[in-house]
Amino acid sequence: MKITEVECLILAxxxxxxxxxxxxxxxxxxxxxxxxxxxxxxAIEQFFRPALxxxxxxxxxxxxxxxxxxxxxxxxxxxLAVAVAxxxxxxxxxxxxxxxxxxxxxxxxxxxxxxxxxxxxLRRDLAPADEAQRVAGFAAQGYTAYKLHSAVPGKIDDPxxxxxxxxxxxxxxxxxxxxxxxxxxxxxxxxxxxxxGRRLExxxxxxxxxxxxxxxxxxxxxxxxxxxxxxxxxxxxxxxRAFRALIMEGRIDVLQPDVVKAAGLTELQKIAVxxxxxxxxMTVHNTQPTICTAAHLHFCAVHPNVxxxxxxxxxxxxxxxxxxxxxxxxxxxxxAITVPDGPGLGVEVDEALVRRLASMDDVPPGL
Length: 367
Known about the structure:
Layout: E1 3-11, E2 15-22, E3 27-31, H1 37-52, H2 60-74, H3 81-99, H4 103-106, E4 114-120, H5 128-140, E5 145-148, H6 163-174, E6 179-183, H7 190-202, E7 207-209, H8 217-226, E8 230-233, H9 240-250, E9 254-255, H10 264-277, H11 291-302, E10 310-313, H12 318-322, E11 336-338, H13 351-358
Parallel strand pairs: 4-5, 4-10, 5-6, 6-7, 7-8, 8-9
Antiparallel strand pairs: 1-2, 2-3, 4-11
């Protein structure tokens, strides 16, 4: 079997979807990081496509090594990992379909068939009382955990930060019934992260994500060493080598890769080996609820050191909500998603809709 076509389709002006076709008529689907869409399309179709045409798609490790080698030559390691990610996911989808096996079985066999998820709020404009009511609403839907983003992004120690006030309001609304995670996207200095972190401990917060800029490994180490609340990071680390540095230098408690950023399932498997070696639990950064989520489900199903609820974006997403490219699939029920059993990713992509959305160039992102 040989690869005959490689495409990157930008759906609804926002979502980069990868399509890999073979001479056996098998089509594999992948996804790239949404915010890198203008980077990944030319990288995939002009830079990586010639290296894939004619290759055997079952050689996932060999092809991943080839693509990552090309990416490293083009810039710092990981620069083009976001493009490799979509290609790698699509190749695993092809492989599973060709072998009539779900990806989780090809990765070694699953230890769980349902993945619990937490409601990840990406809004930053809610008053504390309003966010508390939102948490209560999602708890009523069966979610057992919720993550908020209440700090001011792009600033350090901004006085408009409402994290503590929001957590207090949430606790007043739902008590201890919902596990709470706080992501400040690196908006704190080291000393302020320690100060806020101690208060979050008193309020029973479970995870403190990116308390300082996540490439400040020394700062992360200072915060992680000072607090008992679990410190998580990793969404902007793109290779297993970068995660090794994060573990050794940042001394964080929870590793948090993202399959559409960290070079796909092949690279996530290598990060998982590191996590096992250093006895670190993992969770996934997951804000793209279609093909990206399907890939994460297969990965999370396989690894016993992925014990917590995993991220699930509760904000409107056009290709899930307005134009569903995976109609009726990957439903959250009682706070969890069932791992697909079908071959490859185990999802059916509405290709006609994908083609229609790729032809739309007048849709504002987010609609």
